[in-house]
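CORE FACILITY INTAKE
Project code: CF-77B
Contact: R.S. (postdoc)
Sample description: multi-component assembly, two entities in total
Requested service: structural model of the whole complex
Turnaround: standard
Below are the sequence entries exactly as provided by the requester. Do not edit them.
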Amino acid sequence: DTEVTQTPKHLVMGMTNKKSLKCEQHMGHRAMYWYKQKAKKPPELMFVYSYEKLSINESVPSRFSPECPNSSLLNLHLHALQPEDSALYLCASSSPSGGETQYFGPGTRLLVL
Amino acid sequence: AQSVTQLDSQVPVFEEAPVELRCNYSSSVSVYLFWYVQYPNQGLQLLLKYLSGSTLVKGINGFEAEFNKSQTSFHLRKPSVHISDTAEYFCAVIGGGTSYGKLTFGQGTILTVHP
């Protein structure tokens, strides 16, 4: 089973709201990722967690706050977002050995009004 | 640093025709190479990967790719496409060194299969 699940599928929020995106995998992977994908563009890496510790932050604004409560779960907390943050947010997981395949979830389509 | 170039942004083709989507990469270290497919409003699905071994890699849905180290290419091919293959295709690379674990994507190729 190579399934990564993400909730919610769609999210609409105002600029003053606080919301969270959730990602879950049960493949025993110890690396998890958040990507942001704008329309007609490739995914851009935001954060990497390895063994539940943040290992890469690609200079993401602090209005995005990742959290890895355990090895199967990854959250992305959103606060005071801007309309330009509207995008598809993708979660992925892999074994944390660099060359291992990343498996992606279906994504959360976020619209910031 | 590593980079990926997908040479065609759009590829139109008729159903049952063969197709090749081109991908070139640059890296100063050994790399692992991937092709992902993204259908409209969906996430990325792994088509195939090259980690080591045989340079001809077979994937799902009848796709295959050949790793060519001397030409730093990893072109994706399918001998006969279907309407359902219409999607966006991304070539991606992971290398060692400072880019360890970081997947770098090409800009994507939109494949449109016409009846």
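Facility notes:
- The radius of gyration of chain B is 14 Å.
- The mean pLDDT of chain B is 91.
Invoice: internal transfer
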